[in-house]
Amino acid sequence: MNTRKPIVIMNWAMRQNKNQEAKEFARELDQLMGETRKCELVVLPSMGTIQTMAKELQNSTIKIGSQTISMYRSGEYSGEYSIESLIDIGGEYVEVGHWERRLYFNETEEVINKKVLLALKNKIRPILCVGEKEKKGDIQEVDYHTVYIEIKRQLFNGLLDVKEAEIKNVVIAYTPHWAVGQSAAAPRDHIHQVAEMIRSILAEFYESQTVAQVQVIYGGTVSVGNAKWITSSEAIDGVLLGRFGSRPQQFLETVQQIEQE
Questions:
Q1: 171-174 vs 7-11, strand pairing mode
Q2: Which of 10, 95, 163, 226 is the one with CA 20 to 30 A from 237?
Q3: For 99-139, how does the pLDDT look when each residue is reduced to its tens digit (9 = 90+)?
Q4: Is the separation of the CB atoms in 145 and 198 below 8 Å?
């Protein structure tokens, strides 16, 4: 039986960058969501608005996270966002290993691992993004052995030195590059099969009862229309929303879909 709490995470990327808009967004979102929900709710604002969002939502049940952090806690690293700043504003989550960070900013798996370890050391929950970069041919002809090898490598390297007692604090986000920013999400059967694959890989590294506590979510063209079937498998505990969930009403409706019995 799945006893893990569902989680819905909204990533703004750089779509919303003005503080007045962030204030209005936060107030509307807080009002819509109310005091209690079955899902854990997390917002990852743009860097320029993260402090504003944290202040507006400090008395709500909606948690704040960062889209990235430096792999260094502090020091002479111009332009980086320190975990100390995230802690200071009351942040509780950080996204690590998003494909945009890997591709556009050349983040290696060693860098990603250092960020995961730094987050855990400072009681911040990392959201570790993994997934295959390309889809060769029709989805019906996917070579799952190749997918397995790629995801296992990302999990092994990303979770290197993460202790048994710590892994339950890591959220694993399956975010295949080929499904992000498209007109439709990856097919349901594919998402569910890879989610089960992720859990089986984790079970190679950790005890099965520990893996049973790990939240695994999906991100890649998630919307109100597909959130329910994406999370219909016990292997999936929630979603990572992008552009189709980037308004308060969309966020609410997505959460409502997932919370339906």
A1: unpaired
A2: 163
A3: 989 999 999 999 999 999 999 999 999 999 999 987 655 55
A4: no
Which are the contacts of 24, defined by CB distance < 8 A and separation ≥ 6? none
| Joined tokens for residue 35 | 């005091």
* Whether residue 36 has pLDDT greater than 90: no
Distances (CA, A) of 39 to 35, 255, 260: 12, 7, 11
CA neighbours closer than 13 Å in the CB half-sphere of residue 93: 26
> Count of CB atoms within 10 A of residue 42's CB?
24
Name the pLDDT band for 261 (thresholds 50, 70, 90).
low
Residue appearing with tokens 């960058």? 17
Backbone φ/ψ region at 7: left (φ over 0), alpha (ψ -120 to 50), beta: beta
8 Å CB contact between 202 and 162 = no
Taking the alpha carbons at both ends of the chain, their separation in whole angstroms is: 15
Cα separations in angstroms, 107 against 101, 136, 158, 260: 6, 24, 12, 38
**pLDDT at site 182:** 82
- E strands, 110-242, where? 125-130, 171-174, 216-219, 238-241
The whole model's pTM is what? Answer: 0.95
Q: In this structure, how many other beta carbons lie within 10 angstroms of the beta carbon of residue 174?
A: 25
- CA torsion through residues 206, 211, 213, 218, sign: positive
- CA dihedral angle for residue 255, residue 31, residue 37, residue 230, rounded to 10 degrees: 10
